[in-house]
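Morning. Coffee machine broken again, so started the prediction first thing and wrote up yesterday's gels while waiting. Chain of 269 residues, entered below exactly as on the submission form.
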Amino acid sequence: MFDLAALESAGDDGLGGTIFAGHLHFSPVADSTNDDALTAARQGAPHGSVFFADEQLAGRGRGNHGWHSAAGEGLYVSVLLRPQFPASRLSLLSLAAGLAAADAVHAAARLTVDLRWPNDLLIGPRKTGGILVEAKIESTTEPHAVLGIGINVHQRSFAPGLSTEPTSLDLEAGRRIPRQRLLVCLLKSLERETLALAADGADAIPTRVSQTSTWIKGRKVEVHGPQACTGVTAGLDRNGFLLVRTPTGIVTVQTGGIRALPPAPAIED
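Came back before lunch.
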């Protein structure tokens, strides 16, 4: 369980002084923290409201894929943001969250996270987390987005048949990683990244992701989704969309997922 009093405190171990202080909502069991945050958003909950749970009964990832959320095993958190930047930049929120999550995992567990576009957190070839952004943009209401992040922390076994081999922070670090420490690091990093997104313009986050992810340039991939294709990744555009070089030209992938393909074999003379 989480120590809510400690989370609200100031200093390195708490969230006092951040936008999240005073807006923490913990549930031992939730159907979905993203659903809780979306409901609260419709009821006027403020920017920086955080919804997290010890267990989810109906956790989900991108494309309505289920996210197994066993009690006490992972970090399941959703943040309501009412961003102070143009709605056109909402497409960058998933990448900003990925950077925040990578920083948090490194701070709490001393592990390096690789970001697989658009929303997967990998350690080596294994998946340890994912991000789900659900945005609401209407001309009559203030834009808002719910940013959901799930990270495997204490898991030692996983359901069979997952498309990407899973892992957890404990397995990778060889020790038990405190979920509370990870949550504090994550939210502090997320505050920093969202402020940077507002201040630095549209180019800073795609540039930083391109510099840190092994998936963004030079990776042979198969793209699943509306822009399905096969090719080699060629960077990100200023909206955070993935560029893939195919035999017929560059494809701008706005949504969907990617998986790695083996490189073409060398041709001997």
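The chain has two domains: 4-211, 216-260. Going to sketch it on the whiteboard this afternoon.
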